Amino acid sequence: MSIIFRILFVIAGAVTALFVARDALNFTIIQTFVAILFVTAILGAGSLWSLRRKT
């Protein structure tokens, strides 16, 4: 489980670095927000995929 979170935060850190400087004080907060958005997007895509397979 921790490996999944590490990979998720590495990807979120890379995306966040495109918009916010790494030495900004709120970088980790924005990185966490981006990671939560990724989790939400993955879960939403999974639920939509499940609905598509049922029909």
How far is the N terminus from the C terminus? Answer: 32 Å
Taking Cα atoms only, what radius of gyration do you get, to the nearest Å?
A: 14 Å
Q: List the helices and strands in order.
A: HH
Count of runs of 4 or more consecutive helical residues? 2
Quick summary of this structure?
It is built from two helices and no strands.
Provide structural commentary.
The chain is mainly alpha-helical and 55 residues long. It has one domain. The protein contains two helices and no strands. It is elongated. The model has no long low-confidence stretch (mean pLDDT 92). This is DUF1328 domain-containing protein.
Fold blueprint:
Elements lengths: L1 H18 L7 H28 L1
List keywords for this structure.
55 residues, mainly alpha, DUF1328 domain-containing protein, 2 helices
